[in-house]
Design a protein that fits this description.
The structure holds two protein chains of two kinds. By secondary structure, chain A is an all-alpha fold. Helices cover about 75% and strands about 0% of the residues of chain A. Chain A has a single domain, classed as Orthogonal Bundle (MetI-like fold). Chain A has twelve helices and no strands. By secondary structure, chain B is mostly helical. Chain B folds into three domains: about 140 residues, no CATH class; about 45 residues, no CATH class; about 200 residues, Orthogonal Bundle (MetI-like fold), CATH 1.10.3720. Chain B contains 22 helices and two strands. A two-stranded antiparallel ribbon of chain B has the order 1-2. Classes of the chains: A mainly alpha, B mainly alpha.
């Protein structure tokens, strides 16, 4: 037993120590920095200022816009993704016995695996106002060209569109797993009882999908709060502050103005926001499991 | 297209044309097989029917020009045309179905479907699955899915096309769908060049020691003077992603084994802590890491990025590998232990070979995550250790935007990702949810 314990510790030690060092240290240091006035371009300006950074942040208009945009981006993207993912997942379940369907499914999933930077670039080329193919198609359709990423009214919508394109496959994959786990007998029994499609969705598919979807939403909420690559490549938060999100804001404070104290405070707030959402959703999942089992 | 003035861009017509041919050639063989013909005839007839309805649709659109105008909104008219064209092909298919003659003797397929004496029914014998109507609907669904998949891939295909365009074609307005493919973008990506004046061009053309890349660049009046940074960045990407993957998978394997086989105090919390490190937004972590790296001289070094990537992949590999090891029955090792193996021997000889698929999948996932990583690389490197992801967009900044070169750079970068996605398709769901969800 003692030998076992020694082996266990030996096996665990590298990973745990490494992760503690690489995550706890930066986290604590971030928390510390967020209460100071530290600025890299002014090395002698130091000093503890308590929660001033946080109160400055909360009263800052740009940061508020950033929070608003982040929330709009997350909520809108996730809702649209859920709807698209559900329909496509159902279609795939229906054809799951057609040969080759797993290959087509993988083609669908491809955007999710693409390098986010590349998909950002891809879309900024496609949506570019003069030489992009998106506006070319619109012109051919007789529509006025759409400003896409170039106007403050449409930039956030365009970013949401890119986000949805890239991440719908993720929720689709999750829902597919959920739908495939439904026993066929349930569908057959429902057909016998003369249930219509809405009733099947409501009473058979929804309960099976619930937990899978909640897990998926947690992942997507965290991802959206961390979203940086696509925005940095396509708009850098512009035009104006139309696509300013919290990560962009923190990035600019840190690497643009070297305001590391203030930037850290913004970063810590992102972390707190993501954690709150995760905790709430997690409670949801646990609560439901408690009721069912 | 077809010399007819149509209210739709050619693109859509081509797209739907492919769709109808696809529907026809997948739905018709079902009917033909059912009636005892060879399915190949069905494919040919179906494709013809699809093409026919495509032509019918185009003619109808030309005839209904006033209708399209009445609708005023071109998008609505697209919807109408979809409905109309679907009606055309369904009607034609129904027509074909009625008039396909029964073949003389029952074909082998029919016997199989009926569960006759010659061929036992090997797959599902459910009645609805051999019904041609149901099968045609499946074919229709499959065609819809294929066309939707094509639609989602259009951006990627467009990029792949752009990679082979010349500079004028890449920035042409309106964009060119049909173009002369050239390797100019790829050569631009890989090389540094300088502009030549006309006298120098003539002098260069007279030389005969030029290779194919030189000749391509000469066409646009440029001479190659060396290798570009991209090659270096790609090499950095390989080194950094590769090393960090090996490190994180080996550490992760040990920890996953310990979590799976021994009682660890506070296991749930520990595992959650490990997962949460992966969920930290990069911006939160970078500033302290940045300051620390500057002190330690790790800023803009391979080692620095490797250390960071190892950390974020480690949490992932622990979770994924724990799931894979959990699936190996404990009894295997217990038997080995009884036979006198030590724990380490049992781990090496029993668990590792059993978990090899899982280890391979984890390795590839870790590699791709490190390969795709952008934010850390952008903030923690400038030149020496810079990887390809932050480099590709930076090509936009310098003067003329060489979209062809950028597309070529993206394309090269994506090829391994695409291969891996297909190779790992059984494990994708598991990989992207940290092993939380297994089936699918």
């Amino acid at each position: 037993m003692a030998a076992n314990r020694r082996i266990r510790n030996l096996f665990l030690a590298p990973a745990i120590i490494y992760l503690l060092f690489m995550s706890i240290y930066p986290l604590i240091y971030s928390l510390y920095l967020s209460t100071t006035r530290k600025n890299l371009s002014r090395p002698y300006q130091k000093g503890f200022i308590g929660f001033d950074n946080y109160s400055n942040l909360i009263t800052n208009d740009l940061f508020r816009t950033a929070i608003e945009n982040t929330i709009v981006l997350a909520v809108a993207s996730i809702l649209i993704e859920l709807i698209i993912a559900f329909f496509i997942a159902r279609l795939f379940v229906a054809i799951s016995d057609v040969p080759g369907s797993s290959i087509i499914r993988t083609v669908f999933i491809l955007p999710m695996m693409l390098t986010p930077v590349v998909s950002g670039l891809l879309w900024s080329y496609i949506l570019s106002p003069s030489l992009g193919i998106a506006n070319h198609i619109l012109r051919e359709l007789g529509q006025a060209p759409y400003p896409w990423l170039a106007s403050s009214d449409t930039a956030l919508k365009s970013v949401i569109m890119i986000n949805v394109w890239q991440w719908s496959p993720f929720l689709m994959l999750l829902m597919l797993a959920g739908l495939m786990s439904i026993p066929r007998e349930q569908y057959e029994a429902a057909a016998m009882d003369g249930a219509n499609i809405l009733q099947v969705v409501r009473h058979i598919e929804m309960p099976f999908l619930r937990n899978v979807v909640l897990i998926g939403i947690i992942f997507r909420v965290i991802d959206n709060f961390r979203l940086f690559d696509i925005i940095y490549v396509t708009t850098r938060g512009g035009p104006g502050s139309a696509t300013e999100v919290v990560t962009m804001y923190a990035y600019r404070e840190m690497f643009g103005f070297f305001n590391v104290g203030y930037g850290s405070a913004a970063a810590v707030l992102i972390l707190i926001m993501a954690n709150i959402v995760t905790l709430v959703l997690n409670r949801f999942i646990r609560g439901e499991e408690g009721n069912v089992r | 297209m077809f010399g007819i003035d149509i209210p739709l861009p050619d693109f859509w017509v081509v797209y739907f044309f492919i769709f109808w041919v696809l529907v026809g050639s997948t739905a018709a063989p079902v009917v033909f097989r059912h009636k005892g013909h060879h399915p190949l005839i069905g494919i040919v007839v179906g494709a013809a029917v699809g093409a026919l309805s495509g032509i019918a649709f185009t003619l109808l659109l030309a005839a209904l020009q006033p209708l399209a105008d009445l609708l005023d909104d071109p998008l609505a008219s697209i919807l109408v045309s979809i409905v109309v064209s679907a009606a055309i092909i369904l009607a034609l298919l129904a027509f074909v179905r009625r008039f396909v003659p029964e073949s003389g003797g029952a074909g082998p397929r029919a016997v199989e479907a009926a569960g006759g004496p010659r061929a036992p029914v090997t797959y599902s014998a459910r009645v609805d699955k051999v019904d041609p109507g149901w099968q045609s609907v499946q074919a229709l669904r499959a065609s819809v899915v294929i066309m939707l998949a094509g639609l989602t891939l259009i951006p990627v295909i467009w990029m792949a096309m752009t990679a082979f365009k010349s500079y004028p074609d890449a920035v042409a307005s309106p964009p060119k769908v049909v173009f002369d493919p050239t390797l100019e973008g790829i050569v631009t990506l890989m090389t540094k060049r300088r502009n030549l004046d006309s006298a120098q061009i003539a002098e260069y053309e007279a030389r005969d020691d030029l290779n194919w890349a030189d000749r391509i660049m000469l066409k646009s009046g440029k001479a190659i003077i060396g290798q570009s940074d991209y090659v270096k960045r790609l090499r950095n990407s390989l080194i950094i992603a590769g090393t960090s993957t090996v490190l994180s998978v080996s550490m992760g394997l040990l920890a996953a084994y310990a979590f799976s086989r021994f009682r660890v105090p506070g296991e749930g919390d520990l595992l959650f802590f490990i997962l949460s490190t992966r969920m930290l937004p990069p911006v939160v972590v970078t500033i302290p890491i940045f300051l620390m790296y500057r002190e330690l001289g790790l800023y803009d070094t391979h080692l620095g990025l490797i250390a960071l990537y190892t950390a974020f992949n480690l949490s992932f590999s622990v979770w994924l590998l724990k799931g894979f090891i959990d699936e190996i029955p404990k009894e295997y090792e217990e038997a080995a232990l009884v036979d006198g193996y030590t724990r380490l021997q049992a781990f090496r000889r029993i668990v590792m070979p059993e978990a090899v698929t899982g280890i391979a999948a984890t390795t590839v996932f870790c590699f791709i995550f490190a390969w795709n990583e952008y934010a850390f690389a952008l903030m923690l490197t400038t030149d020496k250790a810079r990887t390809a992801p932050p480099h590709i967009p930076s090509m936009i900044g310098s003067g003329v935007v060489e979209w062809a070169a950028i597309a070529a750079g993206s394309l090269f970068f994506l090829i391994p990702v695409v291969i891996v996605t297909f190779a790992l398709r059984k494990y994708l769901l598991r990989g992207v949810t940290f092993g939380a969800i297994r089936q699918g």
